[in-house]
Automatic annotation (TrEMBL):
GO molecular function, one term: unfolded protein binding
Domain of life (superkingdom): Bacteria
Residues given in the record as ATP binding sites: 33, 37, 78, 83, 98-99, 119-124, 169, 316
Organism: Emticicia aquatilis
Name by which UniProt lists this protein: Chaperone protein HtpG
Record family assignment: Belongs to the heat shock protein 90 family.
Length: 602
């Protein structure tokens, strides 16, 4: 073959700076692109062999990546379809003409064509991000003469004959001085671990195969056991705790989607952790930033999603606008809801045991996606202080007879700190009321969402008012105090309670003498501010509380009968501090003084 020189067919002299600066912002992507192209070449050969268009021995198809620090080269070698000089001119010199795309078009009606990763277009040219020049030595499966192509990143190239005994292609990168970090074996190993971990052809580096070519999401669920799924989870997250359960995705119409999603155990103070859902396109890793592809409330799931309908190099705005991405997002929501409903119906006890973790997803889903409530309302669970679980319908049926107020609304009482609110829970139980536990960071938003969905239902925190005001049935006890006595009590408590509001109520004599409460709307608003990360708009400024004084309690009568002014003030202070103590508001030196006064009075 006569040596040939020519000019690469492109529309601008500036294509390489564009590739280097804009098309691939992350330079390590070059290895993903070149190894993926090598996989393409291998898959094409296997395809042709299966169709009888290649009758030779396939042999060992392992793709090899090697680094030569002295020569400052990185080589990617495959034993795939290979290229002749004419192929190189067609597929390499005509930038953005994708050989994989042409191959797919030609064989689109035959089985398993989607095995071709392909459609990278400019993928090969990502090599110039790290190279001062790039060399191709290739021999076609058709036994054409081997060819060598070399280019220094300008628009000029050279093709000559080459010596190569075996079919396939070697891509040799002569690494540029500013990219010598990629001559480090550890660096290359890390990139391959990230992008090539599940490529469908064996990849060898540093003497060992570094990938699993047949991950479980490429198999049928009927072939797999629970142990297979657990083992794959360990492969993805070696230090992760065993998942609760999983969902195997397998869709081929109206879009292509495979994968396995795992439900992890989640703590109450959940955070989005580093173990995220990984997004692949034909087993090539794309990203673990799956916004828009996976619904927001499911981004704490773990596992893998693989879809050829999501291109490898896309902008965020593309994902938001893409029709297939929206369909995938909706499908994942449906599959998750179906799986949760299946577990709830088939194993209610097991579902309740998992609720602490599962409930985070369900609550987040209801808060962030109106449609999810309709899918989830059957298996939304509420837990009471006795640790019994109820569906929404079950709980309404349990409490509506006794917890319906004068406006015919059913009141769901809840505590967000069972220990701290113990005295208030005890007051509710005296009335035979039931109290829910709502102590998740999401619960303030969750409660709001439920109130907007449930008819004539309201949630009230058990310490947000006196018990008879929380469920106001319109029945008022007579006060044993005269108007003058009420005025005197109010004046005494104003002196010790500062800016707080004094609220005298005629409560049963066996209720506590003083209760410190903060209105439900204020508590819930502050909780929602905290979980949204907005902080408190009032900063550290103390919020005024309501001091509810039980005018029918014997200690209030004793207070009025105390003639010594100092003793009367001291008793008022002690009663007020008792209310603070019940709310966990009495700390430090104030708590010490309270204990000392109590001991002295005994």
């Amino acid at each position: 073959m006569v040596a040939e020189k020519g000019t690469i067919s492109i529309n601008t002299e500036n294509i390489f700076p564009i590739i280097k600066k804009f098309l691939y912002s992350d330079h390590e992507i070059f290895l993903r692109e070149l190894v993926s192209n090598a996989v393409d070449a291998t898959q094409k050969l296997k395809k042709l062999a299966s169709m009888g268009e290649f009758n030779g021995e396939l042999g060992d198809l392992t793709i090899k990546v090697s680094v030569d620090k002295e020569a400052k080269t990185i080589t990617i070698s495959d034993k795939g379809i290979g290229m002749s000089a004419d192929d190189i001119k067609k597929y390499i010199n005509q930038i953005a003409f994708s050989g994989a795309k042409e191959f797919l078009e030609k064989y689109k009606d035959t089985p398993d064509t989607n095995q071709i990763i392909g459609q990278f277009g400019l993928g090969f040219y990502s090599a110039f991000m790290v190279s001062e020049n790039v060399e191709i030595i290739s021999k076609s499966f058709r036994d054409d003469a081997p060819a060598r192509w070399i280019c220094d990143g300008s628009t000029e190239f050279e093709i000559t004959e080459a010596e190569k005994a075996e079919r396939g292609t070697d891509i040799i990168l002569h690494v540029a001085a500013d990219s010598e970090e990629f001559l480090d074996n550890f660096r290359i190993s890390g990139i391959l671990e990230k992008y090539a971990k599940f490529l469908p052809v064996e990849i060898e580096f540093d003497g060992k195969v570094i990938n699993n070519p047949n991950p479980i999401w490429t198999k049928s669920p009927s072939e797999l056991t629970d142990e297979d799924y657990k083992a794959f989870y360990k492969e993805l997250y070696p230090f992760g705790e065993e998942p609760l359960f999983w969902i195997h995705l397998n869709v081929d119409y109206p879009f292509n989607l495979t994968g396995v999603l795992y439900f992890p155990k989640i703590k109450k103070d959940f955070q989005l952790n580093r173990d995220k859902v990984q997004l692949y396109s034909r087993q090539v890793f794309i990203t673990d930033d799956v916004k828009d592809v996976v619904p927001e409330f499911l981004q704490m799931l773990h596992g893998v999603i693989d879809s050829p309908d999501i291109p490898l190099n896309v902008s965020r705005s593309y994902l938001q606008a893409d029709g297939n991405v929206k369909k995938i997002n909706s499908h994942i929501t449906k599959k998750v809801a179906d799986k949760l409903q299946e577990i709830f119906r088939n194993d209610r006890t097991g579902f309740e045991e998992k609720w602490e973790s599962v409930g985070v997803f369900v609550k987040y889903g209801i808060v962030s996606d109106d449609k999810f409530y309709d899918r989830a309302k059957e298996f939304i669970l509420l837990k009471n202080v006795e640790s019994k679980h109820f569906t929404l319908d079950e709980y309404r049926e349990k409490v509506q007879a006794i917890q319906t107020n004068k406006d015919e609304s059913v009141v769901f009482l809840y505590a967000n700190d069972v220990n701290q609110q113990d005295a208030f829970i005890a007051s509710a139980k005296k009335r035979e009321y039931d109290v829910l536990v709502m102590d998740s960071p999401l619960d303030a938003h969750f409660i709001n969402a439920l109130e907007s969905k449930l008819e004539k239902t309201t949630f009230k925190r058990v310490d947000s008012d006196s018990i008879d005001k929380l469920i106001d049935k319109g029945l008022n006890l007579e006060s044993v105090l005269s108007d003058d006595e009420k005025k005197k009590v109010e004046e005494l408590f104003k002196e010790v309670a500062g800016a707080n509001t004094i609220q005298l109520e005629s409560l049963p004599a066996d209720e506590v003498p003083v209760t410190i409460v903060q209105p439900e709307f204020m508590r819930r608003w502050k909780d929602m501010q905290r979980i949204s990360g907005q902080g408190d708009m009032f900063g550290s400024m103390p919020m005024p509380n309501n001091v509810v004084v039980n005018s029918n309690h014997s200690l209030i009568a004793k207070l009025l009968k105390t003639e010594d002014a100092d003793a009367q003030k001291a008793l008022t202070k002690q009663l007020y501090d008792l209310g603070l103590l019940a709310q966990g508001m009495l700390t430090g030196a104030d708590l010490t003084k309270f204990v000392e006064r109590t001991v002295a009075a005994l």
